[in-house]
Amino acid sequence: MKLASINYTLIILLLSNYFCYAQNNVPQDQIKAKIDIERTENSIKITGTAENLIDITKSASYTLSVIKNSMSTKNNKSNNVQEGLLTLEPGEKIKLSSTQVNINEDDEIIIMLLFFNEEMQVISKERLVFNNDKKKNNTQIIPPDGNFILKGIVTDNTKTKIGKDYYDKYYYYYNDIGINGNEIVFINEELSFGRNIRISLEINNEIIYEFMARPDDEFLDAVATESAKITYFYFKEKEKQRKYFTQY
Q1: Would you kindly state where each structural domain of the chain is located, as residue ranges?
Q2: Which of 44, 45, 134, 166 could covalently link to 38 via disulfide, CB atoms 3.0 to 4.6 Å apart?
């Protein structure tokens, strides 16, 4: 297990990210993000679409996140993230991932479609919220304006059952602690020497935690707990730096 130190490079990244949010610099003039909804009595079918708005071929990555909060059961929260890469010809419009989620009047559903450039900066987005005021069939559509800030997103880039088990445990503790960070946490998995599996947590292109995985439920629970705490303190430190920068 390894905890990466917060050095001057990380501080610069954090301050750069602060300016990015402060200036609301998301032009959204290259790819149009659109979430299509098909509503039935007890479920929602969700499909993300992308449209190239410029005269040249455009490549990007995307995530389609569906966050479900049960307002009748405390701390009952689930997060389904689908992701991929795409290349669009000029003027081309395509359908991306589709997913379906059950819903009742006690569930709040948050849907986010995000597009990223090569530097993992958000270049387009759309967000829909269902039942955000606990009234059935009430849908609030929040347009992709510059004031939208990402919160509580954990992206699953694992490939094996061990990786998926770790992700589930980490995401549980992430919500249990109440982190709700305003930057995306990427959980990555890769093969290391001797077919060993290395799992890492990455925020702002900085690895804050990594370990060699093994098929042991107690071990996975321990590293999930530890890495969630490290994530918590990472965001706390970032918030302190922002407040310090604002004061001076």
Answers
A1: 2-23+152-247, 31-142
A2: 45
